[in-house]
């Protein structure tokens, strides 16, 4: 009996030892090192972040032990696994007794309910903490504020919903959260500088603000007594040259319909001269709100300190800004920004995997090989062994011959695929009118043998692995390091003869552009387009609405003559790439079955942008597209001489200049279109509104870049993705009443003699649309184009 008890105790002890041995090593490591390394982490801005943006993860590392080096790792998922398969890391070293601050930028879609921050050496976890956070959808306007007072501009978060339909999140931004890359600053949609010492930021951070604005950011620079220290070296971005200060007794220009503002004492504002842009409000000749374009972004100058009382706590402040921001930033304010690189890149990924050097062997070679094998293994071998009376050897010779044949096929395949790493890239280059380009690319890496590989994407920007859902991604086999001038993607445990993909996005300033000398007259576009990019283009297409001109080749420095018909009504179809995509694919690359060749797949990227977000008011009516046979993003593999080959689609908008007689054509998209009022309940979507019964009014600003136009013809088109009917009215500024659209426009054209009545002195054309149906109806923003002359600048 004693022996039985001993056996039971021994069995229990063995089971305990086995359970301890089976415990994850990471848990044991954490327990052992808890007293040496302490981690404290915060995600985003006080725990808030935008799911479609970039998210800073701030980590405080306290070392209570000896000097140590390792990796700081951010993962989303359970304890030591990541549900998205990616570990974002940063190498760090921490001296004994020191607390170090580190920030890692992580894509918002990689942040989940369970997000862990770990300090690791190799595969051993020395310390770990779990962080909670709150994510906001892509429709949220994220506003960062650099200001002395942390409560500055809080009223932007409570703008009245009857005027403002977009969700807003305002947060004070610490200087250390400002990255040194304009691309990484995309963690915010709008940035406010108010009573802030700009020189507390380093040169890289200040340059990042400049780049971010140029790439499409919305910057607000506030004035008042502290304006010069606030704007600092960003003065050239401001639309106003500030020269001094003044005291005002009233703010008549800032009154809203309710809650009148009363000043109990003189209020300090900054004064100066207008450099360029549009004055939105002024007081006694002093510009209070002025907006201008800067690259693809916009800058709003405000002449006072946003935290100064009594204006800061004025109950009408929210309504004032709800009306002012659309006037300043236009439709850009309501575009849903999405920085998820994985979106809309599947066609690029499939194209990148079509590596020309990895062609399959010809079927005829396989047929010949198997024919020879069948001939030898069948009649030839049979007759030889029969002649030798050794038929029983067939059981040995045939399997040996099969093995030799299999090895031959394998060797032939290895020869075809090569013995080195292959890189192939499919890219999309989108140039703007500022000499910059947004370069999106997917690079495929083919490896001939198993192991660990590190891909390096050179240059500032974003990069991450393109996930496939394979089982190897369930564990931490993908490690990502996003640095200022490069991204490193570490692929672990890669199988032989397999592929890995990296998707990247960069903004490049030295790509050059297309110089267009085009004029519009009598329904024709004529002139020249010169290629001043570094790309040698083939199979070029010049698009004017639905009209296309083919150009076989356009080398750097060369020009082409343009002669195209162009009707303003074609603007209704602009941007609908699936209507014309087949014409963008070269004839010799069309298979008859869609999405087979690289070119067919890459055009699919443009087509997919239509679905769910088609908006002709944001599409360029005149553009050039062409193909280049080269990689557009520099990618390398550590320890390998492999150079990336590739293909890219290059596209850019073209400009129309005044003709010799001074006539100019402004296509749709040239004018800011702002919702100025509504009685209908609205749901705002990226390409317009869904509205219940009632009306909505739009103000169209016919002063592009502050230019006053003499209108010859004004074309207006309204559209709805569900073809819903709306009644339309145009506002008469002289009678101060709306009139039927049909009384003003004939065949969607208003002649210049009517402009005095229907275009205000400030250059505003107002249209009101309504319906009385019981269901919600979609309404896109109107399309307005103008023929005329510029009379003042």
UniProtKB/TrEMBL annotation:
Domain DUF7408: 189-304
The UniProt record lists the keyword Transmembrane: yes
Name the record gives this protein: DUF7408 domain-containing protein
Keywords: Membrane, Signal, Transmembrane, Transmembrane helix
Signal peptide span: 1-28
Transmembrane residue ranges: 363-385, 392-415
Database matches in SUPFAM superfamilies: Class I glutamine amidotransferase-like
Source organism, top-level taxon: Bacteria
Any one Pfam family match given in the protein's UniProt record, by short name: DUF7408
InterPro entries noted in UniProt: Class_I_gatase-like (IPR029062), DUF7408 (IPR055831)
This protein's record includes keyword Methyltransferase: no
